[in-house]
Amino acid sequence: MTAAQIDSGKTDPEDANVKKWVLRIAMTFVVLVIAGFWQLFFSSRPELMTDPAVLAGDGSSIDYCELPVLDGSRKTAVEIPKANTPGCAYDHFPLPILAQCSEPLAEGAVDIRGLWRAIEGKGVNPKIGHVERIEQCGARTVVTSSGIIHDKGPNSTAGVNSNDTEGAVLFTIGDKEYCPRTSANVYWNNGVLDFRVFGWGPVVVKRYLHAGPDGEQLVWEYANGSVTYMDRICTLPEEKKIPEKRGLRLKLF
Description:
ten-stranded antiparallel beta sheet; 3 helices
């Protein structure tokens, strides 16, 4: 802006145009943030399609070292309804989702089925003590742990991506809990199970088998660089039957 323009009180058209664009960009950013927050916490949750008997059952009573035989004698993955987390977390460790499925694993898949406990790790926030159950059947993979059920792959009721929650409750309104939604799918990549955001986005988690000091281990890598090593166990530890409540759990009203 020139001295003459200052004296006359006039604004340089280019400066006005720049301010206009900055305002538009800022408003767009705010709208996107609000829309993203609404989508994460207030958008309609998927219908709970998990078999009620599975959720009501006791998954801690099973010997997970005795893996189901995948000989094709019973249901295929696509014949079983998609599972998802009830609310923000299940209230006790449920029965296996794919117990009735015996479809052989898809080409390229590595058998990582079973119950795994994290014993060591490195990097940012390694998940020592974490316990998870992994089920596989055909091209389907279900991970159950810490209150959540992430079901990815072909099924009889919904898309192949998980449509679920991360499980940590950010805030509550009255008696209702609000936790962020998540969506992902998995792909085998030379023996590594890649978890991609929305099924097409970046790889955020990897799982693969590794020869540990006392036998085969399941390795769990996060995009932040943390690496966790898990040993196979046969029964669910007593303290893992009821999931811990997670998240800030801020009371808004």
